[in-house]
């Protein structure tokens, strides 16, 4: 099978690929339990900013599959559970708040489930459309074929549609504008070597996986023409939170005079924030660093600092590609 569905609403259940098992096994999880969906977000079985938002919206809707005595109280319980799964990607809060606004307008309680599922599907369909438009706008950064480096995973496994940065690369490849792709392995959870490699392979795009620390060497050898990454939250001034290691890449690009681009839907822009220092950065469990495949690789008592994301200052970002446009600096998203 050359294509796959990362997230799908089917026969009253949410069906999603368990990303913790990729690429060695393609295992699907099927559930209509919002608690299981919250756990899937926490464990990164589903992940990527836009995809977290889509899945959380389905989580809210599925919580109303059976009759509920006190829908207002139940909504707030489910909303709070999903709200507290991961703190950085603003798409989660964007989607939950869209579901909340919609819920508050519903007058016919008998239709609750049907209406909420429709709204979740509409959030999902909107994301598919946004990804398509990000990919089209992203083509504007290619004046000739280029070798590209990307970080983390930003494809179908990170969104409800074709992806953000990954989809730009995929569409550009189809137009013969990509010479080669280097995928950062993306320590510690290996979204690059496991997930981006899986998607590049499915799309038959030529690639190599590199360790995160190899980027500088490749840049100094003139092997990278452009870097494109996704985003988890973008402040009004363009400062961008994304997977840890993104900031390193932007600094390296600046030194080597290589354009550094970010691609994300407008649902990733948090206009309530002036700048990136206001973005809450998730810290992950130390086991993700000291163990590989459950096996200790260092001493258990050694301390760890493991932020899941970093913030790239807007000054290092050449352009931000959204579904609306290719935005050039200076950025002002208010
Ligand atoms: O911790 P993750 O895997 O959810 O982090 C994902 C990223 O940092 C992605 O680059 C970002 O969400 C953009 S996805 C289109």
What is the helical fraction, as a range of percent?
A: 25-40%
Look at the structure and name the CATH superfamily of the largest domain: Translation initiation factor eif-2b, domain 2
Q: H/E series, N to C?
A: EEEHHHHHEHEHEHEEEHEEHEEEEE
Unreliably modeled segments? none
DSSP strand content: 15-25%
Query: Radius of gyration in whole Å, from Cα?
Result: 20 Å
Largest sheet: 7 strands, mixed
User: What's the number of structural domains?
Assistant: 2
Named once each, the bound ligands are: 5-S-methyl-1-O-phosphono-5-thio-D-ribulose
CATH architecture of the largest domain, by name, is 3-Layer(aba) Sandwich
How does this model look, in words?
- This protein is α/β, with parallel strands linked by helices and 334 residues long.
- Helix content is 37%, strand content 18%.
- It has two domains: 126 residues, translation initiation factor eif-2b, domain 1 (Four Helix Bundle (Hemerythrin (Met), subunit A), Up-down Bundle), CATH 1.20.120; 187 residues, Translation initiation factor eif-2b, domain 2 (Rossmann fold), CATH 3.40.50.
- The chain has ten helices and 16 strands.
- The strands form four sheets. A seven-stranded mixed beta sheet has the order 6-5-4-7-10-15-16.
- Helix 1 packs antiparallel against helix 2, helix 2 runs antiparallel to helix 5 and helix 4 runs antiparallel to helix 5.
- The chain is globular.
- Bound molecules: 5-S-methyl-1-O-phosphono-5-thio-D-ribulose.
- The site of 5-S-methyl-1-O-phosphono-5-thio-D-ribulose (MRU) has 18 residues, from helix 2 and strand 9.
């Amino acid at each position: 099978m050359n294509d796959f569905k990362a997230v799908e609403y089917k026969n009253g259940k949410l069906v999603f690929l368990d990303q913790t098992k990729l690429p060695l096994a393609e295992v699907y999880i099927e559930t209509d339990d919002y608690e299981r969906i919250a756990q899937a977000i926490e464990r990164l079985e589903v992940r990527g900013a836009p995809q977290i938002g889509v899945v959380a919206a389905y989580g809210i809707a599925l919580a109303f599959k059976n009759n509920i005595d006190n829908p207002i109280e139940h909504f707030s319980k489910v909303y709070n559970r999903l709200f507290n799964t991961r703190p950085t990607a603003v798409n989660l809060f964007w989607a939950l708040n869209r579901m909340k606004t919609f819920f508050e307008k519903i007058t016919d309680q008998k239709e609750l489930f049907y209406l909420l599922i429709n709204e979740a599907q509409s959030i999902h369909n909107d994301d598919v459309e946004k990804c398509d438009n990000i990919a089209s706008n992203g083509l504007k950064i290619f004046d000739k074929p280029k070798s590209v480096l990307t970080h983390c995973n930003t494809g179908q496994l990170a969104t409800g549609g074709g992806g953000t940065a990954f989809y730009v690369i995929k569409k550009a490849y189809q137009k013969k504008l990509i010479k080669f792709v280097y995928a950062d392995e993306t320590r510690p959870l290996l979204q690059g070597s496991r997930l981006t490699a899986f998607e590049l392979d499915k799309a038959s795009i030529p690639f190599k996986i590199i360790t995160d620390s190899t980027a500088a060497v490749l840049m100094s050898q003139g092997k990278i023409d452009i870097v494109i990454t996704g985003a988890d939250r973008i402040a009004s001034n363009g400062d961008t939170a994304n997977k840890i290691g993104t900031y390193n890449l932007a600094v390296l690009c600046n030194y080597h005079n290589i354009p550094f681009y970010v691609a994300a839907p407008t649902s990733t822009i948090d206009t309530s924030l002036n700048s990136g220092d206001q973005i809450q950065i998730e810290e992950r469990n130390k086991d993700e660093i000291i163990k590989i495949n459950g096996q200790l690789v260092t001493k258990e008592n050694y301390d760890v600092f493991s932020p899941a994301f970093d913030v790239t200052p807007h000054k290092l970002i050449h352009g931000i590609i959204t579904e609306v446009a290719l935005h050039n600096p200076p950025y002002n998203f208010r």
